[in-house]
Design goal:
Chain lengths: 179, 179
DNA sequence: TATTGTTATACTCTATAACTATA
DNA sequence: TATAGTTATAGAGTATAACAATA
């Protein structure tokens, strides 16, 4: 006895196994596979790879992620904070930072307030590379939206940012509760 | 000489290394780290894990992804098409399908038009599990948006879906060109 | 005693190469 | 000869456990 499909595509009914109280929800079900695919294509496909090339960075996605995190932060970050922002565990960051350091893209500076910690910041070379990387990626996305009405573009970025923040907050709760 | 930051946060100027012709672009730069973090948190954090538990699925993210792909498709899929939809290579899918088959969640049926191919479809058990999984995930996201104005929710899903499609199309071009 | 980070190790996810069967 | 899939192998990405240094 197969269960009913959950809020199927082009089907506004609800079989609310998750206990949702009301109303036709937006069609997330149709969006979900697209978003999943998009995420996979961006991350594993040639966009990130190409951007890294343009930036003169090796094809070490993980390390590039750390570098971009540092570049988009407004101050040097501790290992633990990088890990938190990237949602990975500490030892992973330690290794990526070591790689970046060997390539001269980041450096460690002492944390005057805590001798256990080190602060990581991009070198000039690292900042330049991160800038080239970001310019490529952002430019590419911007091109993808070039034919969109201005209002839609603004709405997308605004809503997406808010969505990411709201969901991140709820996810943190879920992690505490289960942790 | 560090390069200028690319379209910095709260900074509408442009240093358009990617050759963009005009105008203040929406603030993707601020959105990017959030989205990256969100994606990592959803995929590696407890949401997917919990949803898989609720559904009675093992904690085999990759296989779950295949099952969901099959469940959200409207017909049995060939190995190659699953791989394409998930943006991974064939052999990976072969293995995940074998795992799912052993657990009785999917089955292979012959393709009458091509004896080389097999069509994969969920069993009743697999469909039920996928439904529970999706109900949990969709319900969770829905909860996250419960306080949003109706208009914003609808706009988000609409714009995000369109965005995913547009970007997927452009990414396919990028892959051909570089491939 | 708790916290920050590192080292060592292992597991999951995904890719590439070589092969089989059918078209 | 080209295509769909499988098997075998290797690599990237990330986690867990045990440890060191400082708080």
């Amino acid at each position: 006895m197969p269960a009913e499909p959950p809020t199927g595509p082009s089907k506004a009914s609800d079989s609310r196994e998750a206990g949702e109280p009301e109303g036709p929800r937006p069609d997330f079900l149709a969006a979900l596979p697209r978003i999943t695919r998009l995420s996979a294509a961006v991350n594993r496909g040639r966009l990130v790879e190409r951007a890294a090339e343009e930036a003169g960075l090796g094809r070490d996605r993980s390390a590039v992620g750390v570098l971009v995190t540092l570049r988009t932060a407004d101050k040097p970050l501790r290992i633990g904070e990088i890990a938190d922002r990237m949602q990975v565990v500490g030892p992973h960051i330690t290794r990526q930072v070591q790689i970046l350091e060997k390539r001269g893209l980041v450096r460690r500076i002492p944390d005057v307030h805590d001798a256990r910690a080190r602060l990581i910041e991009p070198t000039d070379t690292g900042t330049e590379a991160a800038n080239r990387y970001l310019a490529f990626v952002l430019g590419w996305f911007n091109d993808a939206l070039v034919d969109w009405p201005r209002q839609d573009r603004d709405d997308l970025v605004r809503l997406l940012t808010r969505f990411a923040d709201d969901v991140a907050t709820r996810l943190a709760l879920l992690d505490e509760e289960g942790g």
